[in-house]
Amino acid sequence: AAAPMNVVIRTDDGAVSLLVDEIEEILDASTETLDAPPENLDHRTRALVSGIHKFPDRLMLVLDTDAVLSSAGAADDENADDHPDGRHPDAR
Q: Is the pLDDT assigned to residue 46 strictly greater than 70?
């Protein structure tokens, strides 16, 4: 198995790196072909997916990076409350 890698995305607040297990391929897909996430996704996954693209042999979930970063920020805020210096316990 390949080592995890970082994917850097640009946000209004600057660049953010997401640690991913694998990148299978990079695809160009139009937002015009984006469909709503399927109802059978669990609610936590559905909250982080902006839609799906249908390909002949598979479905591709489209990550809502704003929702992911908002969710991560909320988790960091909760963890910071438990630590006097506001740092996550794993931070170095």
A: yes
d(CA 71, CA 65): 10
Average pLDDT over residues 60-82: 74
- pTM of structure: 0.64
Question: Which stretch of 7-16, 19-28, 31-40, 83-92 has the lowest confidence by average pLDDT?
Answer: 83-92
Q: Which CATH number fits domain 29-83: 2.30.30, 2.60.40, 3.40.1350, 1.10.4030?
A: 2.30.30
Q: How many other β-carbons are positioned within 10 Å of the β-carbon of residue 37?
A: 19
Taking Cα atoms as reference points, which of 65, 70, 60 lies closest to residue 34? Answer: 60
* SS3 call for 65: helix
